[in-house]
Amino acid sequence: MGSTYEPALHPVKNHQVELSKAEAGVHALAATRNDRWYPKYHIASDGGWINDPNGLCYYRGRWHVFYQLHPYGTQWGPMHWGHVSSADMVTWRREPIAMAPSLEEERNGVYSGSAVVGDDGKLRFYYTANRWVNGKDRSGGQWQVQMLAEAVDDDARELLKRGMIIDCPREKVDSHFRDPKVWKQDGVWYLVHGVSSADKRGQLWLYHSQDMEEWTFDQVLFECPDEDVFMLECPDFFPLKTPGDQEKWIMVCSAMGAQPKGYMNRNTSNACYMIGSWKPGERFQPETELKPLDWGQNYYAPQSFLAPDGRRIMYGWMRPFTPPIPMERDGWCGQLTLPREVFLGDDGDLHTVPVEEIDHLRINDNDLGGSTLATNEERILLDDAEAEEVELTIDLKRSTAERCGLKVHATEDGSFVFVGYDDQSRRVVVDRMAVSRGDRGYRSAPLTSEELASGKLDLHVYIDRGSIEVFINNGRQAISVYNYPSAGLRSLKLVSESGDMQLERLQMHQIRGIGLE
Ligand code: FRU
């Protein structure tokens, strides 16, 4: 039954005019761009700052990626929605900026949100409108509400704003109230978004709707057990089947406030997941701890969507958490991760691997087979690896090295990033200690006892001009980082420290651009 509820529009600016100004802003920054670290095969804006992936969807024959965009600078600022699209998830096309703040509720930004196709075939966008309470800045708190927009054309190049659909009960909320994600279950539409409760706990609130416009509060779907966590940004909630065909629900969120503990929570805020069960009318029942989705210094705000063939695909934002951020002087700042397929493995845990479409970016294949690296040997694989994919299998049982793997972005001045295995911690490490600019430090991901017992370690490494993404044992873990190599050739080397490395397999593929440079 259709409802009579109608969202209302309260324009304070002309949207078309704001969009044109924003295009000019991006254009002006793009004209100054330095491409030394600008991605060849990751999504970034032509110019300006980007953060979270938004509105991910497949619609009428094209894949769409929207993202948070500040068109007038290379730091976070008044948020817009940028847009790119693709027919094949291989080559991408820039689309007009999709949304600029133009309504009363959005005075200070159109924030993150998701997209979903209704039963009527209409593509709808659910997003957050942000207003500073004091009218100036965030120091006086924020007033955030959920909004609706619709695609006007088949290519979603023009969006029609419809207005507010969920107001904020401000007495129950400590000002954070954002990032709606919508899906359909058993004939009912559900919407979940992140909240900081009045007592500063990170919560997810669930709503339901019959008509996608009138939403009724359902319940608090989840409260983060970590009392330090005061807000869960960019929640995602979706079912996946185990290899044994059992349904599990995956809760993904970007938690603010968690304190570092050992290897965990090393970033200012941390994107994580839990596996559990859920039925409409119930709270989410977690069956695991909160775990990181990616162990790198630069991973945040992931969002997933369902592809027509049933794959669950996820993009994250490579967030430059810690200054200095050298790319912000280059006319642009920020890129998304590769699209990753998310699935439950035989071990019952979540895996993320780049979607198979990425293989179509390979320009050539170089199979170097197996080899041995002698104790303390360093061997050049490529003189200049600017955009390269490397697959290697290390035979851990036969290797004696304390650390072994790759030196990536190795330049003449001696800077590089180490990507490899550390036999003392028995973890995979990405170490930026030897870089000449940007944030230093290392991150590492664990290997389970089963992985170690197998005696083999598979590393799949994607090198772009300014980033490195590492996938371990078919996406069992991932580590994503930025790096800002020095001028000159960026060589790729094998390295083995204090012992030898037995490589069972080594394959390399040069990667071509995705059409956004
Ligand atoms: C996450 C986030 C979201 C918000 C958006 C604003 O990075 O803070 O919670 O909607 O970015 O740009």
From TrEMBL:
Keyword Phosphoprotein on entry: no
UniProt GO molecular function: beta-fructofuranosidase activity
EC numbers for this chain: 3.2.1.26
Keyword annotations from UniProtKB, A to Z: Glycosidase, Hydrolase
InterPro entries found in the cross-reference section: ConA-like_dom_sf, GH32_Enzymes, Glyco_hydro_32, Glyco_hydro_32_C, Glyco_hydro_32_N, Glyco_hydro_beta-prop_sf
Lineage: superkingdom: Bacteria
Span of domain Glycosyl hydrolase family 32 C-terminal: 369-509
Pfam family of the protein (one): Glyco_hydro_32C
EC category: hydrolase
Sequence similarity: Belongs to the glycosyl hydrolase 32 family.
Protein name, entry field: beta-fructofuranosidase
Organism whose genome encodes this protein: Bifidobacterium asteroides
